[in-house]
Specification:
Layout (H helix, E strand, L loop, with lengths): L1 H6 L4 H17 L6 H27 L7 H17 L4 H26 L3 H19 L10 E2 L5 E4 L2 E4 L5 H22 L1 H11 L1 H6 L4 H27 L1 E2 L6 H14 L6 H15 L6 H15 L4 H14 L2
Antiparallel strand pairs: 1-4, 2-3
Helix pairs in contact: 2-7, 3-7, 3-10, 3-11, 3-12, 4-5, 4-10, 5-6, 5-10, 7-10, 8-10, 11-12, 11-14
Length: 326
């Protein structure tokens, strides 16, 4: 119960302060790290949004999806097509990429939530993600198996002002601000009456339905919001990595936000973000050792399941309570 109430936000002021501090630290990264680590830091911000968006489903509303990679890939490919093929400015393309992810989530959710729930829903979302993966690999405009490469960093046009995000660390700063805004939006949703209703239906859907909460509609809405946020994060990775490939829609990419959430702690708002940082550190340290990163990841998850069922933040909370006792 304590973990659930913690996910509902705990002191909201604390979460906003943490976000402000983390963003301030994130903006200082280019002054202390080299270009390679700055690139990793940008991916960590994007992955943190990926994990937090997934936890809107899993931790808040009790909906398990194995197909979040489809929305991540949809956002990435939409941003690439809108900016490179159609020549759209980046900001409208980014907004439309997020909208495309939300629309896809609404369609998938309308079908999947009507037909199944629980594990069956998770498998159905995985099936939809694999369908999108196959569609991408067989579409010439999307580069088939090779994907789309050589994506240019965008130029922001704000009236008379222009900001070239390809210069220096400008795009990294944009990622920090954009991801910070998305994290703030996710935190806002959790603190609303809608978020509290989702927590109620997670604990007892039948009772929530009896009390007048439209369970299926609420789940569809949060599934759509999560898909939109995930697509917005994917749209940032396209120009940041300057390449998009079908692997973004592969089932293995759908496991990443699950890993972030379980490792950090699904019952805590910042759990998925912490999980993204930890796993990114593991992948970076073991990047030159073939197969070692997968082994370490598996051992970490085994440790979480057996010794830290509440994730790292759950372990820290138990340790803190233990020290506070006489």
């Amino acid at each position: 119960m304590e973990h659930r109430s913690s996910f509902l936000g705990g002191p909201a002021r604390r979460d906003w302060i943490v976000l402000a501090v983390v963003m301030a630290l994130g903006l200082l990264v280019p002054s202390v790290l080299n270009r390679g680590l700055i690139f990793i830091a940008g991916l960590v911000w994007i992955n943190a949004v990926f994990g937090l968006s997934f936890n809107l489903l899993f931790g808040l509303s009790g909906v398990l999806s194995f197909g979040q990679a489809m929305f991540f890939a949809a956002g990435a490919y939409a941003a690439a097509v809108f900016t490179q093929s159609l020549g759209w400015p980046f900001l409208p393309a980014w907004i439309m990429a997020a909208a495309a992810g939300g629309l896809l989530a609404a369609v998938v959710g309308a079908v999947a939530l009507r037909r199944s729930e629980g594990v069956y829903f998770a498998i159905l979302t995985l099936s939809f993600a694999e369908l999108l993966h196959l569609l991408i690999t067989n579409t010439g405009m999307l580069g088939r198996n090779d994907g789309l490469s050589g994506l240019a960093r965008p130029v922001l046009s704000l009236g008379a002002a222009r900001l070239d995000l390809g210069q220096g660390d400008n795009f990294y700063y944009f990622i920090v601000i954009a991801c910070g805004a998305m994290i703030a939006a996710i935190r806002f949703v959790i603190g609303t009456a809608f978020g509290r209703a989702l927590q109620a239906l997670k604990q007892d859907p039948e009772r929530a339905e009896f009390l007048g909460i439209p369970v299926r509609l609420h789940r569809l809405v949060i599934f759509t919001i999560a898909g939109m946020m995930t697509a917005a994060a994917g749209a940032l990775v396209a120009p940041w990595a300057q390449i998009v490939t079908p692997e973004l829609a592969h089932w293995s990419n759908s496991t990443n936000p699950i890993l972030y959430t379980l490792l950090g702690g699904s019952a805590y708002f910042w759990g998925p973000a912490l999980g993204a940082v930890l796993l990114s550190a593991v992948f970076y340290v073991t990047r030159t050792l073939v197969g070692v990163s997968d082994l370490v990841t598996g051992l970490l998850l085994l440790s979480v399941v057996l010794a830290m069922p509440g994730g790292v933040l759950g372990l820290l909370a138990r340790m803190t309570r233990g020290k506070g006792r006489p």
